[in-house]
Structures are given as structure tokens and as C-alpha cells.
Write a structure and sequence with these properties.
Blueprint: H1 3-22, H2 35-48, E1 52-56, H3 62-73, E2 77-82, H4 85-98, E3 104-108, H5 111-117, E4 123-128, H6 135-145, E5 146-154, H7 161-173, E6 177-182, E7 188-193
Parallel strand pairs: 1-2, 1-4, 2-3, 4-5
Antiparallel strand pairs: 5-7, 6-7
Helix pairs in contact: 2-3, 5-6
């Protein structure tokens, strides 16, 4: 881990906390993952050799840096999708500073559209940290885009368990998936896709 990248992560942690403490407007809040969640994502990418990572919900790019650092170490890449132009601008600047730019593809689009366009089995790992009420509508496309043996990771599984309940129920009802709740950060719901 480079000193410059570590310093950037720490800067973004401070910015996120300060920004979110000063505004109640959701669209202007960063809502970044916790540091221990970042470390956990990094381990998951490396342990599963997830070379094709999709992140839905870039915000200012803090979580993307954890994913991309791990992906680069194993020869992989990260595609991250964000619909808010303000956050795309922040993330783009942070990626340019990180040294991880060549590893990251930043997509300014609606996640549903991106998922619908995705090829079957396109991703090894998908990280969801976006509009929780939209997840059930994305499920068919998510399921198709994740390769057999691929891993779905969903943030805020304990902090916003009630909001995630409809989506979690969909995943748990799917016989192709095995799931687990991990009490890291705000809670991570993990689901692995079995062989088709």
C-alpha cells in the first residue's frame, strides 16, 4: 500500500465525516463505507481472485479505492457506476490522484441501465452501496451479470436491515445462492452464486 494512497484514503475519511456531519441532504452526503469494511472488501477481492469487479454507488470514490487497490494486485479492474454528476466529479478527481486510474472505469449512468446492458457472467464480484429500495428491481439483472461462483456484497445490512429486507428475502429465496450476514462496519450481506 503506497503512502500517498493511504494518505488519500485518510483524507477522504475526514472529508466524508465532516461533509456528512454538516448536511442532511442525502444527495450531497458521501455516505462512505467504514475503514474496516474497506479492509474487508480488499480481502474478499484478493481471496476470491475477483478480477472483474462492479461497484454500484461510487460516491466520492472512497470504497472504489479499496476495491481497485486489491483488484490491481491480482491483475483485475473495477467498473463503478454513479448517477449523480456532482459525485462523479469528486470521484474522478480522487481517482486521478490515487494512481489507480488505469484500474478503474467510472461510469456516469443509472445502475439499472448498466445492469441491463451487462453480459451474462460479466462480473466476479458486485458491491452494492446505492439506493437500497431499487435493489429488488435490479435482482434479475444482477443475478444474470454475476458469474457462477461470483460474490455479491451488500453494504448497510445491519444499519438499514429493514430497508434491505425485501432484497435479502429475494436472494435467500433463490436456490442458486448461498448467503451470510457479516457484522463488519454497517453490516455486509454476502451471497455467492452456485453453479448454474
Amino acid at each position: 500500500m503506497s503512502h500517498a494512497l493511504e494518505a488519500l484514503k485518510a483524507e477522504l475519511e475526514r472529508f466524508g465525516a465532516s461533509n456528512d456531519g454538516a448536511t442532511a441532504e442525502r444527495s450531497r452526503r458521501m455516505l462512505n463505507i467504514t475503514r474496516d469494511t474497506g479492509e474487508f472488501l480488499s480481502i474478499l477481492v484478493r481471496a476470491t481472485l475477483a478480477r472483474r469487479v462492479l461497484e454500484i454507488g461510487t460516491s466520492n470514490g472512497y470504497s472504489t479505492l479499496w476495491l481497485a487497490e486489491a483488484a490491481r494486485a491480482i491483475g483485475g479492474t473495477v467498473a463503478t457506476v454513479e448517477n449523480a454528476a456532482y459525485k462523479v466529479g469528486l470521484a474522478s478527481a480522487n481517482f486521478a490522484r490515487s494512481g489507480l486510474g488505469p484500474t478503474i472505469t467510472l461510469v456516469h449512468d443509472d445502475a439499472a441501465r448498466l445492469l441491463e446492458r451487462s453480459e451474462p457472467n460479466a462480473f466476479d464480484l458486485v458491491f452494492l452501496d446505492s439506493e437500497r429500495q431499487a435493489y429488488p428491481g435490479w435482482w434479475i439483472s444482477l443475478r444474470r451479470a454475476l458469474r457462477p461462483g461470483g460474490l455479491l456484497v451488500v453494504d448497510n445490512a445491519t444499519s438499514h436491515a429493514e430497508q434491505l429486507a425485501p432484497f435479502v428475502a429475494l436472494v435467500k429465496a433463490d436456490p442458486l445462492f448461498m448467503s451470510s450476514l457479516v457484522p463488519v462496519g454497517n453490516g455486509e450481506f454476502l451471497a455467492v452464486k452456485g453453479p448454474s
